[in-house]
């Protein structure tokens, strides 16, 4: 079976602020941003890869999402962190952008295991809503 991650849902307090962070600081392209700004989409997304997006869901949508999944308590359930892998060049450039935007790196790791094997370096930092991101590169 060949499985791909389709999307993740991140709970955010301010969708516009979060969209700015993911587009401008992380450099991820927005998805349905015009529809969101025009009130035609309930949430914006950013593209992580060709087949994967990150949905920026407002906390006030908790009730509707709980009903949608059919699993009581699933809406707003926290995750520890999610990890993005990038090239070494993009990894270095991201650290510069994080500093320019005043985002502090909260942790670092070396030689850690992930989906593609061992990553020489990784950094951790929060988004504007406290969701923890890990970004790493592989040789």
From TrEMBL:
Limits of the VOC domain: 4-138
Any Pfam family matching the protein: Glyoxalase
Q: Which domain of life is it from?
A: Bacteria
Name of the protein: VOC family protein
